Amino acid sequence: MFSTYFIHLAVIITIFIILAVSLNLVLGYTGMINLGHIAFYGIGAYASAILTISHQFNFLLAVFCGGLIASACGWFLTVITNRLKGDYFALGTMGFSFVSYAFFLNWTSLTRGPLGIPGIPRPKIFGYIIRTNGEYLLFSLLVAILVILFLYLLTRSRYGKLLEAVRDDVVGVQMLGKNIFRLKYQAMMISAFIAAIAGALYGHYISFIDPSTFYLNDIVIVLTIVIVGGLASLRGSIVGALIITLIPEALRFVQMPPSMIGPMRQIVYALLLILILMYRPKGLFGRVDLE
Fold first, then answer.
1. What keywords sit in the KW lines (predicted)?
2. Among 17, 45, 58, 214, which has the minimal tally of Cβ within 10 Å of its Cβ?
3. Any residues with CB less than 8 A from the CB of 82 and at least 6 apart, and which?
4. Is 255:169 a contact under the CB 8 Å cutoff?
5. Rounded alpha-carbon distances, angstroms, from residue 89 to 92, 94, 194, 287
6. Beta bridge partner(s), residue 124
7. What is the Cα–Cα distance from 122 to 118, expressed in whole angstroms?
8. Distance CA 143, CA 187 (A)
9. CA torsion sign, 205 to 206 to 207 to 212?
10. For residue 223, how many other CB atoms are within 10 A of its CB?
11. Max Cα separation, the chain?
């Protein structure tokens, strides 16, 4: 029983790691406070579920298509918020998450609305179906490693340094003749694609999704992971995912009414966030402050 529980927990952690590092690309490295990131996560989950169930798409093709849709939405979000700065940009992206939630909830002919989409199949990779949770853990861990490796190489490259320059010195980047808007939408599109991969992994693992999974609660969790771990730090996002997942999960073993577990988790998230912002503004491994 415990081994099954810990395997399940490990799968969820790997998915949160993928989601957190994707957010860190735009938030930590590029300096864009994107509060609508959870929308890309939901788009990936819904797109992959609908394409595999209703249109019999191959899993990998469905995930790729979901990533493309999320990337297109990321480009659109960057376009409509291009003139917004700081807190206004953050509020604009939060509005996007509300719009996406409204689509998930009300486009019932496509998403089944509040009923959700049940029966999402397990991934089938080159004819092999990933049936057990142990196999799914290995698969999700492999995906997480590949994503982290890709982002590590990207952020260490000349292109990654340009993204950091967008965060630190917009005028300097413009003087180099670089297109700020292009760099921003490219970072947003890459981030959205990776978030969609995380969403697809979640949907095919749980085998059921509904709009409540992709609302404010999850963006708070992912933001907390990134801030606790540290901005512009992939290692920080990994450690942050472990901390933010495991510490509240320990409440399962504390004697309290079941109705209190959810609110207590939110209190734990809030306390961790407050303590980090007070005593380690850069997070555990971060290189920049959240401004």
1. Cell membrane, Membrane, Transmembrane, Transmembrane helix
2. 58
3. 181, 184
4. no
5. 5, 9, 21, 22
6. 129
7. 12
8. 20
9. negative
10. 22
11. 61
Tell me the C-alpha distance between 283 and 93, whole Å: 23
Burial zone of 140 (CB within 10 Å; 0-12 exposed, 13-18 middle, 19+ buried): buried
DSSP3 helix / strand / coil % (the chain, rounded to 5): 75, 5, 20
Alpha carbons within 13 A on the beta-carbon side of 125: 11
Q: How many residues does the structure list for the chain?
A: 291
Q: Per-domain residue ranges for the chain? A: 2-214
Please give the structure tokens belonging to residue 258: 């079941």
Please name the residues in contact with 219: beta carbons below 8 A apart, sequence gap of 6 or more: 35, 36, 37, 38, 97
Joined together, the tokens standing for residue 276 give: 């980090």
Residue with tokens 């081994």: 3
The Cα–Cα gap between 278 and 4 comes to 37
Question: How many helical (H) and strand (E) elements, i.e. helices and strands, does the chain have?
Answer: 12, 2
The tens place of each residue's pLDDT in the chain, 291 residues long, gives 558 889 999 999 999 999 999 999 999 999 999 999 999 999 999 999 999 999 999 999 999 999 999 999 999 999 999 989 888 999 999 999 999 999 999 999 999 999 999 999 999 998 899 999 999 999 999 999 999 999 999 999 999 999 999 998 888 888 888 899 999 999 999 999 999 999 999 999 999 999 998 988 888 889 999 999 999 999 999 999 999 988 877 777 777 776 777 778 778 888 888 888 888 888 889 888 765
Closest CA to 184 of 151, 210, 162, 212: 162
